[in-house]
């Protein structure tokens, strides 16, 4: 569409974690690579829906003919950062048949009795799907580190296990897209207050969020360490400034589009003779 | 929105199967209860998205506070009738977090070794979810009857088993919405030809669809019988004329809206003292 303001620089470049990354240098209010306004962002989000839908359909179509490709979007963030909004506003444009969504809650007793990747492995997306994890195996190196539920040695073991796990995903055809939505502590305070102001949002309010908020610095340190330890060439982290929800949405949409484009998808070729089939249908 | 043409009569009334129902009396080209055009239908579909989304969020919210309510939309149809389009155009407006989609393919050897409801039971929607079955346990009384894979006695046993199964779903808080999308044989022929005309649709073409097409009358008889035998007050069938895709979409959207309204959903009340929490957040 003419007049839509696009990114100057692709978020897969600007938001990708590289050497010497420091989370504290990322300004949650910034909009890297994008010079448009909130309204421009809204238009861009809508404008890209058709492309996203077509790429998703191609991905699905390939899998019907033996294709092994798939996407796994991993969303991590402090509470209220907008994971749900990403799913609702970015993923909702996609065909629900091709989206495999999983929210990881606190593990059950059964899940705790296994290695931390046991419950994750069962939810990896099928071929042709766009999988979305709302929280993930990263909780086991974030909240576990913050509260000391695992020793420093165990956390280190988990970093290595995560790298190997994600390597295996890549080897089996999965494009792993890791996103941390980054808000400021001040922004979180405002969003928590806003939930109290609106009775229709009261169900989203949880005292537990406030308890975790008290560990903000520890969480930032845990994120810094996890991001450093698990950013690999095939499965890099992207830190998305998220104080502006509209920016986070278009940025994650672009990351998804980029990941789908990297898969070089093609419509499957007919394995049948078109004139023969046409004749059969006409005679049916 | 002003100017949007709405249904004169709700599809839950006009399309609901009652005593003396005869599938052969339903005209697949008709648009019962709706006097608008294709363009009017498109506008209506878009206009109802927000209401659908809000009801879905309420359903989800209730479940976070112990609510047991949920929806199960069962879609059955001849090939090319537009099940996929319903999912893409009606369900896609919903938050993917609250949609539980399952397409049932030909059963695996493991699935065949159990009772036919074994694999179905595992996919019933969780509390708070809108479940969608693309094909279902009805295949076991449709294609199985048409090809004689089950004896008449066994088909009869399955009708009873389905009634009991769906009663249990209702008793545990599920609103079951059963939809047959009804197209004509002529319309199917045109849609199959259209798939051949567009190389981007070749992947959807399947010679097997043509083989089943040869059994059209047997399928219509199997549908008539299944619909008669399993339409119950709590889980009635709806036969949706589907030669006009736009009509089928707004009709199913209305059936979903009606089902959600029948659940009398409410936003959960705060179980905390709002001023106390506000003070805690401000001090954090």
TrEMBL record, chains A, B:
Domain Polyphosphate kinase-2-related, chain residue ranges per copy: 39-262
This protein's record includes keyword Transferase: yes
Region described as Disordered: spans on this chain: 18-40
Pfam families in the record: PPK2
Biological process, per Gene Ontology: polyphosphate metabolic process
Alphabetically ordered keywords of this record: Kinase, Transferase
Presence of the UniProt keyword Membrane in the record: no
GO molecular function: polyphosphate kinase activity
Protein name per Swiss-Prot or TrEMBL: Polyphosphate kinase-2-related domain-containing protein
Species the sequence originates in: Arthrobacter nitrophenolicus
